[in-house]
Amino acid sequence: MGLFECVPNFSDGQRADVIRAVVAAAEAVPGVAVLDLESDASHNRSVLTFVGEAEVVLEAAFQATRVAVERIDLNHHKGEHPRMGAMDVVPFIPLRGSTMEEAVALGRRFGVRAARELHVPIYYYGAAATRPERADLPKVREGQFEGLREAIRTDPNRAPDEGEKAVHPTAGAIAVGARPVLVAYNIYLTTPDVAVAKKIAKAIRGRDGGLAEVRALGFEIKERNRAQVSMNMTDVRRTPLHRAFELVRSEADRYGVGLEESEIVGLVPEDALLDAAEHYLKLNHFDRHLVLERRVQEKLGGKGSGAAGPAPPSLASGSVENFLSALAARSATPGGGSAAALSGAMGCALAEMVLRYTSPAGQLAPEVSSKVGELSGVRAKLALGIDEDARSYDAVRAARSAMKSSPQDPAARERYLDALRRAALVPLETAELCGTATAVLSEMRSRIKPIFLSDVVTAEALLRAGTTGALANAEINLATLREVGAPADDLAERLARLGKPQ
Asked: Which has more pLDDT, 15 or 493?
């Protein structure tokens, strides 16, 4: 079963009894693993992180939310961090063996249940957003609890996705999303002047023309007598930590201010730290498989314990050179499936670019903006597919080896068949995503300026390559499924619909 991470943000960072009660509600769900809790008194906010399989994570998120709704009254809440709900944000993040599409479905199930049973209105954001403008969390939370009380009743654009057009009288509303792993990253300045922090935050955040996938605010941290630039790095593959750090330092220099220190709040992917190490140490051709702990884990991780071991290093978040070197190596993964997903993702990115040039900057027509948002969502899923394809085939090899070691074990054979099926399903999903992007580009082609014709042709060729390669990969894996007598009619039907013979 796939794993999911959930990182609920709730609006209390000061009352220990309330914080403990929210965490205890999640921990009480069998099968959940609580990884981290961060509470900040100035922000008056806590961030809880737990993981588990889908149903476990869904139940833990609901139980934690139930306690937050019961125990937190926003009418008496004050803190530095913006908020619109007692349980303010509930994001679902796909980890090993799960997809963004599944995380979206999980978020929607949570939203329906929370609205029905807790009587709190729900807004979907990120990959789960139902409208392009709601993909951005700050936009969803605009006006906070106090402003939303009136807007939700009178402004059709602020109507919730689930629940009544009225905030919960004490618990407000909840933003429920699906997204990649987020890194909460703060930098303390050598000044208490919060005006400087706010200017820097505006300069670096993505919505104001700064760094992609970076949300930033400036805060005064009174107990330290320092101003803080607080960032949510929503995709460290697009904007790594070191790039944000350097831009903050450059902006701070304008005001004669230095950087005292930085901090990571909560958990961080290993690759995000390795990206920074490669940058500052100028390790331009470093192979991350050479990290001692990774090599040990790859060889020994999980042996004798039934554990799945750690996920392999991310292909999508590394450098282009490292990916190409891995692709060229005498190794089964990454292979054609990962290359097909990358090709499709590049095709989407080019398509997004040419559509953004159909209007002056910041003035996209609503229908064009909607299509750009759709392409962006497809691109994110294809980027995840780069790693997912490699992992799925590695899982087949591991399951095949385990089955050979225990030929009489029916569970070992079942795991092998499940892995085979996943290895066929991943490229099918890649082909379908490439097809979706191709259709969007074709629909919008007449609106694209002639000067970008070569980019359009390149995007179409990349998407076509992604489709063709993924279908070939799926066809081979489907044939292997049939050879071992596993049912695969549903996969064959999907393959046929995409244009390949059964």
From this structure: 15
- Of the chain, the end-to-end C-alpha distance in Å amounts to 28
The C-alpha atoms of residue 438 and residue 498 are separated, in whole angstroms, by 13
Closest by CA to 235, choosing from 340, 335, 98, 135, is 135
DSSP-assigned states of every residue in 390-449: HHHHHHHHHHHHHHHH-TT-HHHHHHHHHHHHHHHHHHHHHHHHHHHHHHHHHHHGGGS-
Fold of 183-281: Alpha-Beta Plaits (3.30.70)
Against a cut of 0.70, is the pTM above it?
no
Q: Are 434 and 467 in contact (CB under 8 A)?
A: yes
Pick the CATH number of 4-178 from 3.30.990.10, 3.40.50.1110, 3.40.50.300, 3.40.50.720: 3.30.990.10
Neighbours of 3 (CB within 10 A): 19
Q: With beta carbons less than 8 A apart as the criterion, state whether 159 and 140 touch.
A: no
pLDDT band at 38 (very low <50, low <70, confident <90, very high): confident
The pLDDT, as a whole number, for residue 396 is: 81
In this structure, the strands spanning 4-6 and 45-52 are antiparallel
77 carries an active-site annotation: no
pLDDT tens digits, one per residue of 60-112: 999 999 999 999 999 999 988 899 999 999 999 998 788 999 999 999 999 99
Looking only at the bridges linking them, the beta strands covering 122-126 and 174-178 are: parallel
Q: 230 or 325: whose pLDDT is higher?
A: 230
Tell me the fold of 314-497.
Answer: Four Helix Bundle (Hemerythrin (Met), subunit A) (1.20.120)
pLDDT above 70 (res 307): no
- Three-state secondary structure readout of 266-322: CCCCHHHHHHHHHHHHCCCCCCHHHCHHHHHHHHHCCCCCCCCCCCCCCCCCCCHHH
Residue of 77, 81, 242, 289 marked active site = 81
Domain boundaries, the chain: 4-178, 183-281, 314-497
Spatial CB neighbours of 299, under 8 Å, sequence gap ≥ 6: none
Q: What is the largest CA-CA distance in the chain?
A: 71
